[in-house]
Design brief:
By secondary structure, the protein is mostly helical. The chain has helices at residues 2-18, 24-63. The termini are far apart. Belongs to the SecE/SEC61-gamma family.
Length: 65
C-alpha cells in the first residue's frame, strides 16, 4: 500500500509543482485556433462532398439516360 501512496503523492506533486498550466489568455487563444481550424476543415470536406456528389449525379445522368 505504501507504493500506491507514494504514487499518489508524487502524482500530486508533479501536477501542482512541475506542470506549467496555460494562462486564461493562452487557453482562449488555443481554443480559437482549434475552432477556426475545425470550421475550415469542415468547409473543405463539405466542398469536396458537394463536388463529388455533383460529379456522380452527372455521371449517372449520362450513363442512365
Amino acid at each position: 500500500m505504501s507504493k500506491f501512496g507514494n504514487y499518489i503523492k508524487n502524482s500530486y506533486k508533479e501536477l501542482a509543482e512541475k506542470v506549467t498550466w496555460p494562462t486564461w489568455a493562452q487557453l482562449q487563444q488555443s481554443t480559437m485556433i482549434v475552432l477556426v481550424a475545425t470550421i475550415i476543415i469542415t468547409l473543405i470536406v463539405w466542398v469536396m462532398d458537394f463536388i463529388a456528389g455533383g460529379g456522380l449525379n452527372l455521371l449517372y445522368k449520362i450513363l442512365y439516360s
